[in-house]
Amino acid sequence: MNRNRLCGAFFAAATLAGLLAATRLTAQEPGNVPETKAPPPTQSAPAVMPAPAAQNRSTYDPRLDWPWLGRFKDADLALARPARNQKRVVFMGDSITQLWKIEGPDGNFHGKPYINRGISGQTTPQMLLRFHQDVIALKPKAVVILGGINDIAGNTGPETLEQIEDNLTAMTELAKVNHIRVVLCSVTPAFNFPWKPGMTPAPKVLALNQWIKGYAADHGYVYVDFHTAMKDNRDGLPPNLSKDGVHPTEAGYAIMAPLVEAGIEKALRKTE
Question: For 87-105, what is the mean pLDDT?
Fold first, then answer.
């Protein structure tokens, strides 16, 4: 019995000694196992990207600048802040606004500090994306919003009336929180689209205008009704006011100008 116990103790001691020796050897081996730290980056950090150059009409690419923030970028930056008592007004819209002679000595509002920020073909989501740059940053007293006809035409894809209404709502809310008075305009009449025939836009225009009128009344905004003053018996634009049934001629703008001027004056008289 004693001999067996002695042998067992000997083997146990030998095993323990072997384990201790292996531990010392492992601790002393050179570090040929990969370190547990993040590997070095495979590429250096990118340099600061230069600001993109502003695009003009000939270089505009909607894949690079879908809302066309470059269209008025330089003009916006060059525009001085309004004088203390200046009643600056920005017109935000699409081609119907762009073609309107708003600025300059031959414009419909000669001597008024009005600024045209209309871009041909634009829809309300595009207008919304550039609203801060092209309206809020210019510090106007009021904004005239005229948009929605290109949405109905599907210029940037299908849209429901509710989506158009949401975009108009977002623009008015942005204006309000920045203490800018709002003038909401009806969509002008359209019986057909020359670039997309057969869409029968007139009923949708009527429905959208009904919503705009009600929304303006509910929220204390000024509503300017171009549609009633310009429509024919088909709820379109008559030939004496438009050559293509969508864009007003000078005769059409002559009807619109006093209506929007009255709306601006009413908005500026409102107290916040």
Answer: 96
Q: How far apart are CA 195 and CA 9, in angstroms?
A: 100
Residue 93 neighbours by CB under 8 Å, 6+ apart: 117, 118, 119, 122, 127, 144, 145, 146, 147
Handedness of CA 122, 125, 126, 131 (dihedral sign): positive
Give me the phi and psi of 36, to 5 degrees please.
Answer: -90, 65
How large a percentage of the chain has pLDDT more than 90? 73
Q: Are 118 and 144 in contact (CB under 8 A)?
A: no
Distance CA 9, CA 2 (A): 11
3-state secondary structure of 92: strand
pLDDT (tens digit per residue) in 203-251: 999 999 999 999 999 999 999 999 999 999 999 999 999 999 999 999 9
Identify the bridge partners of residue 260 per DSSP, sorted by sequence position. none
d(CA 102, CA 144): 12
In total, the chain counts a number of residues equal to 272
Query: How confident is the model over 73-98, as a mean pLDDT?
Result: 96
Give just the sign of the alpha carbon dihedral 150, 109, 106, 113: negative
CB 174 within 8 A of CB 136: yes
- Token digits of residue 127: 């207008």
How buried is residue 38: exposed, middle or buried, by Cβ count under 10 Å (0-12/13-18/19+)? exposed
pTM for this predicted structure: 0.79
